[in-house]
Structure formats: C-alpha cells, structure tokens
C-alpha cells in the first residue's frame, strides 16, 4: 500500500470514526430475534474495519474479503 505518514494518519482517523459509528449502531440496536442479522452485519463490519486499521497501521496491503465471508453472506441474504 505504501502510504505516506499524512495519508496514513488521515485514513486511520476515518477508520476510527467508522468504528465509533458502528459501535453506536450496534449498541443502539435492540437485541431481539428480529435484529439478530442486523447485529451480526454490524459486528462483521467492525471486524473488517479493525482488520483494515491494523493493515494501515502496519502499512500493508488492503485485506481481501475471505471466501468464507462471501459464502456466509450468500446464505444469510
């Protein structure tokens, strides 16, 4: 990925805000059977943002979604 320090810092700030918004969404969604899929999708998005954050901090390649994750979403939808 080879980011300069300024771009890396800016991307990490956006990722921090995204994580915060996803956490707020998760915490404000009622934990009912009707919302179980919603909570799962929010949690999965947080995991992906966390993985991207780690890679940006390490200045590595952007993660490619796992094949299992794509298959799992096909079954849920």
Question: How would you describe this structure to a colleague?
Answer:
By secondary structure, the protein is mainly alpha-helical. It has one domain (5-76). The chain is 73% helix and 0% strand. It contains three helices and no strands. α1 packs antiparallel against α2. The protein is elongated. The relative contact order is 0.16.
Count of runs of 4 or more consecutive helical residues: 3
Radius of gyration, in Å, reads 15 Å
Give the helices and strands as they follow along the chain: HHH
Main β sheet profile: none
Helix percentage range: over 70%
Unreliable residue runs: none
Please state the oligomeric state of the protein chains shown.
single chain
Query: What shape does the CA trace take?
Result: elongated
The overall number of domains is: 1
Distance separating the two termini: 32 Å
Which structural category fits the helices and strands?
Answer: mainly alpha
Whole-number mean pLDDT: 85
Give the DSSP E fraction (strand runs of 2 or more residues): under 5%
Number of strands: 0
Outline:
The chain has 77 residues and is mostly helical. Helices cover 73% and strands 0% of the residues. It contains 3 helices and no strands.
Topology:
Elements: H1 5-28, H2 36-57, H3 67-76
Helix pairs in contact: 1-2
């Amino acid at each position: 990925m080879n980011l300069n320090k300024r771009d890396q810092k800016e991307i990490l700030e956006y990722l921090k805000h995204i994580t915060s918004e996803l956490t707020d969404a998760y915490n404000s969604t009622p934990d009912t059977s009707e919302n179980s899929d919603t909570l799962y999708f929010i949690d999965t998005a947080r995991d992906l943002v966390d993985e991207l954050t780690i890679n940006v901090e390490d200045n590595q390649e952007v993660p490619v979604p796992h094949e299992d994750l794509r298959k799992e979403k096909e079954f849920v939808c």
